[in-house]
Design goal:
The protein is mainly beta. It has one domain: Immunoglobulin-like (Sandwich). It is 6% helix and 36% strand. The chain is built from two helices and 13 strands. Strands 1, 2, 3, 4, 5, 6, 7, 8, 9, 10, 11, 12 and 13 form a 13-stranded mixed beta sheet that branches. Strand 5 and strand 6 form a beta hairpin.
Length: 247
């Protein structure tokens, strides 16, 4: 697996060359999530058995489709942070788990997957997209603007961590229970953040998604985009970093 990175300086210069986005028309009804600080680094293996996860607040369940309608698929998500990482976890109830892609940076969105979109500065066009499927395959993308990514294989986060755990089989057959995922996004990659590490009170834009294919296709979101498109940063929710510490 090729794992090379463009320098952060090059990315920063590229970001500076794109236009500033206008956030004045954003809806006042987008969801907000308060991120607690973890005093204990998380073992990123997908098992969700670190004690701090039980003390982290849950996002409102990802039971909404992109259009805001209710879905029968149940998904729990939580987030934590420390000086090194933004941590996100998913628990996906699923009686028919399916994926086939095993190579990094394949088009994972064509199959079943969970996704994290992070935009640390809403006054910049750039954002990061992360996807993990039930086989533990990662897609990490740095986008300079909406649907304008650096070439997928030219930017692979060097210190990104992720893990999955499957209660069942990833074969598209019934009889499964759930799959879980943990992702640790390095703070060093989030180059547009006003402060690194973030300070209590800092606000970033973020959205969480789940794509389901079997037995019935669905695209779930924490903050529904009201459109058949994940790449609408103006509809992302907001995370607020707090000084609450969990152990």
């Amino acid at each position: 697996m090729r794992n090379t990175r463009l320098s952060m300086l090059c990315i920063a210069l590229a970001i500076a060359s794109v236009n500033i986005i206008d956030t004045s028309g954003q809806s006042p009804h987008l969801p907000v999530y308060e991120v607690s600080r973890t005093a204990t680094p998380i073992k990123v293996d997908g098992k969700l058995d670190d004690a701090v996860w039980t003390k982290a607040s849950r996002f409102s369940d990802l039971v909404l489709n992109l259009d805001g309608s209710q879905s029968s698929y149940k998904t729990e998500a939580r987030a934590l942070y420390d000086d090194q990482f933004l941590y996100v976890s998913f628990r996906c109830v699923d009686d028919n788990i399916w994926a086939t892609y095993k190579k990094r940076d394949q088009h994972l969105w064509d199959e079943e997957v969970v996704e994290v979109f992070v935009q640390a500065d809403p006054h910049q066009n750039s954002y990061i997209e992360l996807e993990v499927n039930p086989l533990g395959t990662m897609l990490d993308i740095y986008l300079l603007a909406i649907r304008k990514p650096l070439h997928y294989e030219s930017w692979n986060s060097q210190n990104l961590k992720w893990g999955i755990q499957v209660l069942g089989t990833v074969d598209g057959k019934n009889g499964d229970k759930e799959w879980t995922c943990e992702i640790a996004l390095p703070m060093e990659d989030i180059v547009t953040a006003p402060n690194l590490p973030p300070r209590p009170g800092d606000r970033w834009r973020l959205n969480l998604y789940r794509v389901e294919k079997l037995p019935t296709p669905a695209s779930l979101a924490w903050s529904p985009t009201r459109n058949d498109d994940f790449h609408l940063p103006g509809m992302f929710g907001e995370i607020v970093f707090t000084d609450r510490v969990v152990r």
